[in-house]
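Aim 2 progress update. The chain analyzed this quarter is reproduced below.
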Amino acid sequence: MSAAVTLEDLVRSYALRAVKADKEGKKDEAIYYYKKAIEGLGQLITLYPDSPFRQAYEQMINEYKARIDALQRLVPANDDSEQGANVEDFIVKEKPKITFNDIVGLEEAKEALREAIVYPSKRPDLFPLGWPRGILLYGPPGNGKTMLAAAVANEIDSVFMQVDAASIMSKWLGEAEKNVAKVFKLARETSKKENKPVIIFIDEIDALLGTFSTENGGEVRVRNQFLKEMDGLQDKSENFRVYVIGATNKPWRLDEPFLRRFQKRIYIPLPDERMRVVLLKAYTQRIPLDQSVDLVELAKRLDGYSASDIKDVVQAAYMRVIKEMFRNGSDKPRNLTMEDFLEVLKARKPSSSPELIKAYQAWSEKYGAL
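Predicted structure tokens:
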């Protein structure tokens, strides 16, 4: 039932985001996440019709639908003050100060990004046939997709536009396709004005371009607009230095017309054993370690953990030491031991299941494109 647990966690996250937006008066955003929660609950019922929680799922669906109806009656149909996004807000004024050298491992992904973006940006005259304008980073969460996008932006000194797909879809209900057009228009104008490359980074791109059983006409129009804009970047009559990097944990939600626009499709996998050792060394470099700590052995036990998971394990293990220091009234923490790590691992499991990793690998074999 690990897949069911994963889906339940996803539904829970959507519901929490919906309730939070609802309380903050962000009606359109709340509606969007209530719909996502309903979709997930519907999938649970379909996949597990005999689940003892089916009645609870159905009750939650009805409650969320009722709340959506109530919110829709409160949303003004035409409010000129709220129409359209202030797309200039998407430009990140201070890019994260990170380069490829700061990212542990992922050498294959870094080289693919150099080929697709760095080299053409520095010497476009060497690419008479053009170069990729769309790059898809996919894989389990917590392994550096966002960091890679920020790093490549710094490598070429580009303008970095970070777009939250969920905001595009929900914050300006009924205006989403126009906002997609505005984002691309701003990117082209900025590239010409500043004579710099522009990277549009779209996190959770499946929320913008994925296909869903509950979608409406507006979502279809958004996808069509995005296809049109992506095709426009390849226009030979214009020398746009605009790139789109999409990141997703659910690549299977993207259909083939969109995949064709992402000429580079790069799998960002879980760290292997060698990289887990490197990550452990990096995360523990400022923590006093007991002689009992064997990072190589610990790395073996962390098979299946993401880079983010490994950082969380180190933090949780060190927190045991900190709590003990405060409880004992000590002045400084003792050294972190191997036993601390092993106790944490008893309760803290990987965020991605083996079944999910197999799904990524299968999708990569079919659609991967370095």
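The beta strands are 134-138, 159-164, 198-203, 242-248, 264-267. The CA atoms of residues 100 and 148 lie 7 Å apart. These observations will guide the mutagenesis experiments scheduled for the next reporting period.
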